[in-house]
Amino acid sequence: MQTGSAAAMITPDIRAWIGRTEAIGPLEVSRREIVKYAIATEQRLAKYLRGDEAPPMFLYGLLFPVVPLERIGSDGLPQRALLPTLPLKRVMAGGTRTRYHRAVRPGDVLQGTLRLKDIYGKDGSTGPLLFVVYELHIETLTGELVVDELQTRIVR
Amino acid sequence: MPQLETLHVGAQIPSRVFTPTSVSLFLYNAAIWNSHRIHYDEPYTTGVERHPGIVIDGPLQGDWLTQIVLEWLGDDGALVEFEYTNRQASYLGATLTAGGQVSEIDSTNRTVSLEIAIIDSAGVVLTPGHAVVKLA
Question: Which of A60, B55, B134, B135 is 20 to 30 Å apart from A99, CA to CA?
Fold first, then answer.
């Protein structure tokens, strides 16, 4: 049961976004992109440093929005398509839970969907908080499962 | 590689210390194509978003947690599930330690669960996480 001021911020217009989806990809994975990620994250395993296989969280970068400069805000963040206008503005990472089905390698072509699973409000000790929950599903172009992920973003 | 027969709940996995620099943070954000100014523009970060310093990316800390698990696991197993939460921000200049321990062993399915975390030099848990691995 939702009570209090945070819950009241979830208007019918905002609620209407729940269930909307965004198509992802197809995205082609290159060895050079894996190697850059592996070096920047201080990986030690040779398979990652050579780019033979992508570290598990490489997908976080692969899926980061690449948009024209005019669609990047003054904070430096890209405008996201699958997010309604909310009365609170500061978006922070919450938790992420990922199930890994298959490793990602150079030459893989990935596609999937991002689904806005839920939006809800809670009154925290520092004020109202909004939670935006996404469900990410990624597979290869040939239908092999790659990851399923649940992401929570906190807006305050 | 860890042997299921000799593992026990509470066994520590080797930890790693990370001291990100402005160069390593720049390269990470370039690699993932993240232009959020809190990771490279100090006047903006402290003046507008009111952080005490340049912010170390939360997902980068998540990546470090996967690394200590994968380095402990070796090549004959696989990461099946991974969960992390960025509970508290940390800032350029911090020394962060990734560590963890075995929390559950399922001999039938050959899976091992681990509780892992990034802690700062004062021992504060910044990014707790949970991983499930399957041994070959």
Answer: B55
Name chain B contacts of A98, Cβ cutoff 8 Å: 81-83
In a domain, B107, yes or no: yes
Quote the domain boundaries for residue A30. Answer: 4-155
Range of the domain at B81: 4-20+55-135
Report if residue B37 sits inside a domain: no
Interchain proximity A97–B83, CB inside 8 Å: yes
**Rounded-to-integer distance, Cα B91 and Cα B31, Å:** 19
Q: What is the ipTM metric for this complex?
A: 0.97
Q: What is the pLDDT of residues B78-111, one digit of tens each?
A: 999 999 999 999 999 999 999 999 999 999 999 9
pTM over 0.90? The answer is yes
Residue B24: the pLDDT is 98
Q: For residue A125, what are its two tokens?
A: 């000790």
Helix axes B22-32, B58-73, angle to 10 degrees: 90
Token digits for B14?
């080797």
B95 in any annotated domain: yes
